[in-house]
Specification:
Three copies of one chain form a homotrimer.
Chain A: H1 3-37, H2 42-46, E1 49-57, E2 61-63, H3 65-73, H4 75-83, E3 85-89, E4 93-97, E5 100-113, E6 116-132, E7 135-145, H5 151-157
Parallel strand pairs in A: 1-7
Antiparallel strand pairs in A: 1-2, 3-5, 4-5, 5-6, 6-7
Chain lengths: 161, 161, 161
């Protein structure tokens, strides 16, 4: 086999491995949100977002890491932490395209109560990501509660567009 | 190092990378079910199955993609969607063997109610897959509810056989 | 390209692929716990742990696979199985460093009741692993219930240390 053929075969493999590593990195970003917000670590939650990152839900529309951090420090969120909360995303479907990526999937918030646990919130999510100099960051997370309304199915349905 | 040694080393690596990509593809198939059925996308749900694919549960025994699509369009399922439902599989254990694969794991259905959410169904699953010309497809999903009966532990126990 | 350059490039790729395979192996270990304990397979549950492995929680402090197996055989656990239980970890964040690894994440136990399902326990976990001659094994699992107390956030917070 000549040098050019090796070169191409090795380069193809390097690209495939990088894509697999990107999947792992994006799962890590998604799965770091819970440990950040359930411990009240506003800086860690904010740092998951790009400088122009947006967190959009039925509850709020936050622009930039500082706004995300402020939400974590806010009384609504702090009362959830005091009860005992677990923000748990499900295993999403990730699509990577060069330096951008999208994930579609579910998330749940479990909340501790006097009687045990309630499933406090079940949502549909679309996460968008960009590869930056410091690794992947969230550029937008759109989150809508699943309650029979149209917003959540609209998000989930984007997987098939 | 001579050409043959390179050849072997590179081919071994290509096989390992393909196996990792197969894992990702199979997770994607499993995790696309929820977004399909919770949005009532009967075509997308059906397309996850091979032509001879079977969906077997306590509730039904469906043969072929058309039967899966009909279940999604049926009144039982449509009423679940109207309430607001989330079909969420857990992270399963996948075993790949060439062009066939098996996954063992849990799934849950959360259902929106007037009082919030109920965990409507928790099940054990065995998914079986085949690599086709269009990628991996489900050849069989066996799903049994976890209720203290023997069917669900029988499925989960196959992980250790 | 000369032989040394190829050698280095291929070796680098082999290391990256091994790291990805380690991730898969560690997920498999974590996700085998549920199928073992929910079917009462004490041997399979014990075999996930290294000889000196420790399972530490609010409920118990178990040293070694035999103690883990005895817990599975114990009346408390057997009554959970009779009701119908599902021990489901969430997708954790894994850090691998050579032949050791750590994972941080959530887990839940769903329990079947006369009225359907209850979320019986939601916990924070740190799993520690060692690569052995027989593959990865758990050297310690620390599990604390999420109830507003300090133990669970302490575990989750270690992701950012």
């Amino acid at each position: 086999m000549d040098d050019t053929a090796w070169q191409e075969r090795l380069a193809a493999l390097e690209n495939r491995v990088r894509q697999l590593e990107d999947e792992v990195a994006i799962h890590r970003l998604i799965n770091s949100w819970g440990p950040a917000v359930d411990t009240g670590n506003a800086e860690a939650a904010a740092a998951l977002f790009a400088e122009d990152g947006i967190l959009e839900s039925d509850l709020s529309y936050l622009i930039g890491p500082a706004a995300v951090g402020a939400m974590v420090r806010g009384e609504g969120h702090q009362s959830l932490i005091r009860d005992g909360s677990a923000h748990i995303p499900a295993f999403p479907v990730i699509q990577i395209s060069g330096d951008e990526a999208t994930a579609i999937g579910y998330s749940r918030v479990y909340r501790h109560t006097d009687d045990g646990y309630e499933v406090w919130r079940v949502s549909a999510n679309r996460w968008q990501f960009r590869r930056t100099g410091e690794g992947w960051r969230m550029t937008r997370r759109t989150n809508h509660v699943i309650d029979g309304g149209r917003a959540a199915p609209r998000i989930l349905g984007q997987l098939f567009e």
